């Protein structure tokens, strides 16, 4: 932009009125001298004011300042800025990078007005990650002047974090209805950021799980399970109209439930998920196992095993403690479905285009089932293992051989081991 006159009426690099010359010295390069005015420089810079206090410009009117090559343009722009009104200094910047460079220069030469203008511009602008690092570096040299500059980087209050987290949970679990389809990407982003907020790495988790937060998470879980139930109730009608669209709707619902199951595992609330999933299990299976879908919904059927695996893992490895009657019922509800669906998926997998379950996920689910069986009372174990062996030729998955071997050993040694340990209570049948 064109130089703007100050009250003194001076313009930058006007040799006809200047009384001093300034150059920013570069190693092995011819210096470039700028015609300046001592009144302007001393008024705007402590460095120049001190220099004029120690030197007589009548005998020495040349000021040399050492300057890193990469900062040269910023120093020149800072010098020009001393000749501009404050509002024009702010308008002269065209990027954060430029403003940060001028800020470094002005701060080193004690140019208060230019420094303040740089800070105001940077504070109001958006930054990328690289610029943010540069701003943090220069802010360390600014002292109290950096307060407004760093306001956006200060750790938010616990209440502010809590409010954002609760809002994100409500959005990620579609509590606000109706939920337009075009917001799906935003919902996914909310889920990702919730995971980030609770993740503990080198930094502590951003949000604290107090009762208010837990209540909203529980409310979100109930909403997602209710959405799945509603989707299943509408499946028959929607499937007749558009099978692919109907299946995709159920898949999206299951993906949301899978996400919240992972979230609940991280915040030690899997008991809520297992209980909620158990409550709708009978309804879910009654729909997807209908003869109408015997040759369809393979993606949904596979995803159901994956989601159920989260519950089996939590119960099987003891992170969720439930009565044995509950565990027996849950296992007997899902085991036949898992056996049948896995076999059909394997048969279909001969076609390379068919859906296949992830091998690691299958192994994890199988291990969880084995662990769950071994934690049941011996008679319940016997009941489950007996049914498994009757169908072993028909269903190879899950393989309960390990559970069978442990049960045989325990059964054979039970009486001796209990007697040896003094467990000879006559009311207990050995």
Automatic annotation (TrEMBL):
Residues 18-91 form the BTB domain. SUPFAM superfamilies: POZ domain. It holds the Pfam family BTB. The keyword Disulfide bond does not apply. The keyword Nucleus does not apply. Keywords: Ubl conjugation pathway. Pathway: Protein modification; protein ubiquitination. InterPro entries: At3g05675-like, At3g05675-like_ankyrin, BTB/POZ_dom, SKP1/BTB/POZ_sf. One of its GO terms (biological process) is protein ubiquitination. May act as a substrate-specific adapter of an E3 ubiquitin-protein ligase complex (CUL3-RBX1-BTB) which mediates the ubiquitination and subsequent proteasomal degradation of target proteins. This is BTB domain-containing protein. It comes from Setaria italica. The gene is LOC101784021.
